[in-house]
Design brief:
It contains eleven helices and six strands. With about 270 residues, the chain is an alpha/beta fold. Bound molecules: 1,4-dihydronicotinamide adenine dinucleotide. It catalyses: a 2,3-saturated acyl-[ACP] + NAD(+) = a (2E)-enoyl-[ACP] + NADH + H(+).
């Protein structure tokens, strides 16, 4: 059901790779709620072509941009304003990639060049996006910026390797830039810490399926789906959350606050 929560709002949505991407669901919900927006992804993801289907469905233009390139991001914000007819009201950062995870490197055997790429793509890009928008003054007053994160920023999940550091940095950037953008244009900046979700990036993590089941058995509400994450992000883009900023918001069915569940206790046979 749609409520018109984003009626008249303009935005930029990154990270929709295929129909399991969290950003894909967010784009569909944003459209239903009345927003107009541009879609962006790395040029290499563009060649896979699936994003065109989403663009047609949402009547949105696609602007290719590598999130590690200042030039691409300037183009993204400039062209988005031209296409949409003004400054934007919301920005979604839904970008993550670790070459170390892709190539199966253990945390105790990281390749540092790849580690730097992980941080550049998955964390610094959040700062880069906001710094670009700030300098171009491309976000309207009371606008909203959301980045997607994972709880490995606070607690250790061994298989998450260097992405844990990237997420800790991403969340820190939300706090720091949230201060500056709040002062400058009353723009709020938050991260949403989502449950494990079956997507291309999610399933690339070692042992993902088992961990997905574990998290689902711990959380009293079970794992939050990508569709539910989309609903939550829509509220953060809407005018109903204007005073929420610099927060890391858990969207995980209660996982982060649960020590252990009865289901997990039943699996442990201690006399
Ligand atoms: P996904 O694989 O569909 O999305 C990741 C996106 O990052 C892709 O669209 C990819 O093309 C894009 N990307 C990679 N390098 C890029 C670059 N240099 N420039 C621009 N875009 C680039 O997977 P998912 O799960 O939807 O990921 C979205 C976000 O959600 C990520 O930040 C991820 O860490 C986060 N997240 C995912 C969870 C999961 O279990 N799937 C749980 C919690 C957070």
């Amino acid at each position: 059901m749609a409520y018109g929560l984003l009626q008249g709002k303009r935005g930029i949505i990154s990270g929709a790779l295929n129909d399991s991407s969290i950003a894909w669901k967010i784009a569909q919900r944003a459209k239903e709620e009345g927003a107009t927006f541009t879609l962006t992804n790395a040029p290499i993801a563009m060649r896979m072509g699936e994003i065109k289907k989403l663009a047609e469905e949402c009547n949105a233009e696609i602007i290719p941009a590598d999130a590690t390139s200042n030039e691409d991001l300037e183009k993204l914000f400039t062209q988005s304003q031209e296409i949409l007819g003004g400054k934007v009201d919301f920005v979604l950062h839904s970008i993550g990639m670790s070459p170390n995870i892709r190539k199966g490197r253990a945390y105790t055997d990281l390749n540092y060049e790849w580690f730097k790429q992980t941080l550049d793509i998955s964390a610094l890009s959040f700062h880069r996006m906001m710094q670009t928008a700030y300098k171009l003054d491309a976000i309207n007053e009371w606008g909203s910026v959301v980045g997607l994160t994972y709880m490995a920023a606070q607690r250790t999940f061994p298989f998450y390797t260097d992405m844990a550091e990237a997420k800790a940095m991403l969340e820190s950037i939300a706090r720091s830039f949230g201060y500056h953008y709040g002062k400058y244009r009353k723009v709020r900046v938050n991260t949403v810490s989502q449950s494990p979700t079956q997507t291309t990036a999610g399933s690339g993590i070692g042992g993902f399926d088992k961990f997905f089941g574990y998290a689902d058995a711990i959380a009293p509400l079970g794992n939050a789906t990508a569709d539910q994450c989309a609903d939550y992000c829509i509220t953060l883009f809407s005018d109903y959350t204007r005073m929420v900023t610099m927060q890391n918001l858990f969207h995980d069915g209660g996982f982060s606050m649960t020590g252990v569940s009865a289901e997990i206790m039943d699996l442990v046979n201690v006399k």
